[in-house]
């Protein structure tokens, strides 16, 4: 048994990301930032992408100043639904840092809230482009341009940030949740297509206190927390810990799976009301 795969507690490298290159889409805030911070603390070179340059630069400065780690932090402006942007991003990453070892498909959008029959084409397509097609195009680019899973590279990891919304009915965000359900299916499909050189897994969070869920959190935090078995909402750090597990040999025999992190929301009795999720 190699040092990297020896039992936990017997090797200082177990769960380490030193020497690895991780790309986190939507990494300037919320869950993406929490994952990037955890990867940096574990020793990785971390690349964060987002559409807004100022927010991205500020996030990179915070990561460098507030999170100790030996690796570099590289911010790159890119749209998660743009295949050309993905190619350009991974070309720069490979030139600056070397082959990518981990991709986190975290960036998401939700421009529509309301019943499905009120959904217009423009917002429907935008949601699919980022949440669903973006997962495919960024994974493809990571492999073909970034070197993820190359024969001369370590076994790669893809971590998709889905949602428990992909498993339930939730008023107002049915279309968003449909794209998250698609992410869960695509995770299994890509695990089959990309093995054994790349492992593909997902995280399905419940309500996490981020900007994306700000309206829900402000209006209903006490109600939501009172219902959950663990009596609190999730944090970006909670998701970061799970992402580290999926990105390293801690989960070396795991692919095509989804970890649910929801404080126990899916364990609630059906009769409980007002159980909105993110």
Automatic annotation (TrEMBL):
Q: Which Pfam families match?
A: adh_short_C2
Entry superkingdom: Bacteria
What PROSITE patterns does the entry give? ADH_SHORT
Which family would the database say this protein is a member of?
Answer: Belongs to the short-chain dehydrogenases/reductases (SDR) family.
Protein's name in the database: SDR family oxidoreductase
Biological source species: Nocardioides humi
Taxonomic lineage of the native organism: Bacteria, Bacillati, Actinomycetota, Actinomycetes, Propionibacteriales
């Amino acid at each position: 048994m190699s040092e990297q795969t020896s039992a936990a507690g017997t090797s200082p490298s177990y769960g380490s990301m030193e020497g690895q290159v991780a790309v986190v889409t939507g990494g300037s805030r919320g869950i993406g930032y929490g994952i990037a911070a955890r990867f940096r603390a574990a020793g990785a070179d971390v690349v964060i992408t987002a559409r807004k340059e100022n927010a991205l630069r500020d996030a990179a400065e915070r990561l460098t100043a507030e999170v100790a780690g030996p690796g570099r932090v590289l911010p790159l402006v890119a749209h998660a639904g743009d295949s050309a942007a993905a190619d350009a991003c991974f070309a720069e990453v490979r030139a600056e840092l070397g082959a990518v070892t981990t991709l986190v498909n975290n960036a998401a959008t939700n421009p529509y809230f309301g019943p499905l029959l009120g959904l217009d084409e423009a917002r429907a397509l935008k949601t699919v482009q980022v949440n669903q097609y973006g997962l495919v195009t960024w994974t493809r680019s990571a492999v073909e341009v970034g070197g993820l899973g190359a024969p001369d590279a370590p076994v790669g990891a893809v971590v998709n940030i889905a949602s428990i919304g992909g498993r339930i009915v939730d008023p107002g965000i049915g279309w968003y949740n449909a794209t998250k359900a698609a992410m869960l299916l695509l995770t299994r499909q890509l695990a089959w297509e990309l093995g054994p050189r790349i492992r593909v897994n997902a995280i399905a969070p419940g309500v996490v206190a981020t900007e994306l869920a700000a309206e829900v959190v402000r209006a209903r935090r006490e109600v939501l927390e009172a219902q959950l078995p663990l009596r609190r909402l999730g944090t970006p750090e909670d998701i970061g810990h799970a992402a580290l597990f999926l990105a390293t040999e801690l989960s070396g025999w795991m692919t095509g799976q989804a970890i649910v992190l929801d404080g126990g929301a899916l364990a609630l009795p059906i009769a409980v009301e007002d159980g909105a999720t993110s």
